[in-house]
Amino acid sequence: MATSTSKVVDIHTHMYPPAYVELLESRKSIPFIRRFDGAKDPRYIILPSEAESLDKITAAGSSASANLPGRPVTSHYSSLAQKLHFMDTHGIDISVISLANPWLDFVASEEAGETAKSVNQEFSNMCASSPGRLFFFATLPLTAPPETLLAAIGHIRGLRYCRGVILGTSGLGKGLDDGALVPVFRALAANRLTIFLHPHYGLPSEVWGPRASAEYGHVLPLALGFPMETTIAVARMYLAGVFDAVPGLRMLLAHSGGTLPFLAGRIESCIVHDGHLVCSGKAGPARRTVWDVLREQIYLDAVIYSGVGLRAAIDAGGGEDRLMFGTDHPFFPPLNSDEQGEWESMTWNATAVSKALGDGSEGARKVMGGNAVGVLRLWEDS
Ligand code: 5CU
User: Fold this and answer.
1) Residue 261 lies in a domain
2) More exposed terminus of the chain, fewer Cβ within 10 Å: N or C?
């Protein structure tokens, strides 16, 4: 459901609250935050594929290299004032903030419940301090025992500004097609909590080849590994029948669904030509297709940086009603201009919407904010 608002809403925008930053600073292995001599900001080493460049720097015993691992932890990571400044600079009326990857995936089982509670409370407080401008996707303690996990859903459903959860693809350790997750999906659906599915793990580092860590920066894991991870996770859920088992489940996929809009037809072709699936009755005529699921249970963000990609996302969802604008702030800061000024992540994604749907069109208005306001009920007392 879209509303007639012309508000601009950013549904893909992260925060690392100060307590979470402290947790990362206390760690010695990925993910962690570390200071390197001579670097202006601490560095956040986050991706499994960054291990090799980190090892090289550690072995050399020096961090004088311009090629430091990770990314700088600027004030944009945890400062609420910066988030609001970013929103004001770019004409964003509402942000639906979420903890960034890898969330609480690394937290010990016995600590996960309390950590999730305090992180979610911190997000809730941030939203309450700017009423009407901020909502949030909460974080789940996936490493905790099942009862703690379900209790966490009980906690967040009572938080006024919470509209869903951000989720990685690892689930309880076996991925999102794990039958043990179905009760979690059911609890989220019953409470109208949308899952914002976001990648982190990418593909195994070997696929990037021996030159990657020294020469190609983060381009391959971020541009290709992230979207493939999302695509695979959702395809597995589809094949496992999760969408049929939980018809109320609603998912918002990061990065315009990875490559799903482009590959859904190929997935369909592989299903109907698979002898095993045909024999087991899983490919029968009553089946809801991948296209059906895309049009009934899935929303896509518009973080794809081109009109071409956005067009595919719009077509896959059967129109512009299932797409929502986002920026991925605080990632991808401008490297050659003032960080307090304009960011390409805003301008490229907004331009893509105008190109795909027409500048100022009704469709563009829906993608830029109307869909998010309607689907996520972005009014204060819902
Ligand atoms: O630059 C990066 O590593 C990332 C990341 O980890 N997560 C994200 O959402 N965007 C960029």
Assistant:
1) yes
2) N
Cβ–ligand 1 distance for 46 under 6 Å, the answer: yes
5 CB within 6 A, ligand 1: no
CATH of the domain at 335: 3.20.20.140
How many angstroms separate the CA atoms of 53 and 193, rounded?
39
229 lines ligand 1 (CB under 6 A): no
Q: How far apart are CA 83 and CA 96, in angstroms?
A: 11
Chain centroid to CA 154: 22
Domain count, the chain: 1
pLDDT per residue as tens digits for the range 231-257: 999 999 999 999 999 999 999 999 999
Q: Which of 30, 331, 332, 344 to mutate to test the pocket of ligand 1 (most atoms within 8 A of CB)?
A: 331
DSSP 288: P
User: Residue 222 Cα, ligand 1 centroid: separation in angstroms?
Assistant: 7
The per-residue pLDDT for range 302-361, each reduced to its tens digit, is: 999 999 999 999 999 999 999 999 999 999 999 887 889 999 999 999 999 999 999 999
Q: What is the pLDDT of residue 92?
A: 98
Query: Residue 335 domain-assigned?
Result: yes
Neighbours of 62 (CB within 10 A): 11
Whether the full predicted model's pTM is greater than 0.85, yes or no, is yes
> What residues contact 206, with CB distance under 8 A and at least 6 apart?
none
224 domain-assigned: yes
Does the CA dihedral 270-271-276-279 come out positive or negative?
Answer: negative
Residue 208 CA neighbour count, 13 Å, CB half = 24
The answer, yes or no, to whether any atom of ligand 1 lies below 6 A from the CB of 159, is: no
Average pLDDT for residues 46-73, to the nearest whole number?
Answer: 74
Lookup: tokens for 75: 């004030």
| 48 CB within 6 A, ligand 1 | no
Identify the H or E element spanning 98.
strand 94-99
Residue 48 lies in a domain: no
d(CA 47, CA 53): 11
CA–centroid distance, 275 to ligand 1, in Å, is: 39
**Contact predicate 61/94, CB 8 Å:** no
